[in-house]
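hey so u asked for the seq, here:
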Amino acid sequence: MSDSNTDGTTGTTSRRRILTGAATVAGAAIGTAAVRGIPTIWAQNIKDITLIHIGGSFAVIREIADQATKDLGFKIQMQAVDQKTLLQRSLAQPQSFDIENIDNSLIMYLQGKGVLKPIAVRDYKLWDKTLPMFTIGKYPDGRPISAEGLSPIKIGFWDGPDGKKFAGKPTEWMTYVPTIFNADTLGIRPDLVGGKQAVTSWKDLIDPKYKGKTALVDDAPVGVMDVAMALEARGDIKYADKGNMTRAEIANTINIMEGIKKSGQFRAFWTNFDQSVNLMAAGEVVIQSMWSPAVTAVRSRGIPCYYVPLKEGYRGWSNGLAPMAHLSGLKLDCAMEYINWFNSGWHGGFIAKQGYYSPVPETAKKFLTQEEWDYWYDGKPAAVEIKDPYGNLMEKKDAVRDGGSLWEREERIAVWNTVMDEDRYLTRRWNEFISS
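ran it, structure tokens below
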């Protein structure tokens, strides 16, 4: 018996439910030590299951796989890949793995390709506890999130169980279950730029005073957002919608950036998390595109690094887990157990210490001390020393998180990571920019 509906989507009548009974499943499906108390027949059936999970190095971490394996009773094997490789494998070799970490923008490339298995909302056990940013596109106070770029609502749902087209609004069919989110800005070395207050605007990324000491992420959909924020802040261009530029706006943007590059402004164009960390830690760059956990990683080495709350706002993004279309039967059951496990608490507590947020904060809170919660989520001065997930000292007592509390950061998102209608043209022009 399969747990797939006739249309191939995940469904509520699964082999596991038949084996254990709905009441048992409801109590054991999520949370630490999720398989405790489950009848032996389930444990015997899953012990030889291995799920291959691919994604960026910031998300696929051995300790997470080890904890999930321990809690769930089947094996999780993680493979770290860069964004381009992830996309290539998703399209050309989708059966070579089972679950992928997918960004809110990259998932646009998979629309209509039939490589992802739609997720029935009813199969996601923490829907009611998930932040409304992801379920209805609003902040907790009822205000809508930014519509520029690809917000979680624009790409978070399929228009039907066939998974062919994004609905652009909430439906009963999810494209992925969000597991990580944040609001990005620029990272700086305060000791090398004249202090934390020396950088206040996105335009500082292209300020000649940092010539030869700046870096950009080499990923067209994301990098162009950082560029657009900088150019608009400097007054070069006023975009109608930075999240979906016209061809003329793209051309103007790249033309200006090619000139800035030829002046020697940029030291590097990084493609992965570790490169961004090493560039900043070595002092090769003093201001650059950066992810919050990369700032954390630099600090954990005892090197000053600051994530600037720029006056124009943040670039938002979300990342989540999507099961692949080839999954069926018991392996699909296990995939859904794993996806539900991700937001059940342990993972949320782990990633909080890297600077990420969980879409279900109340479960993450159970795996943080009150002092950690106050620092990471509430933006309060650290009452104790703050350590990263591996126990390394990251912040001394009385330090305050860059940007403040969760909502001080998230409510200032100006644009989301995106894939534009003119994506092919943008990619070509971006590659010309990088190679110029």
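The domain at 15-175+317-343 is CATH 3.40.190 (D-Maltodextrin-Binding Protein; domain 2). The chain has two domains: 15-175+317-343, 184-313+412-435.
lmk if thats what u needed
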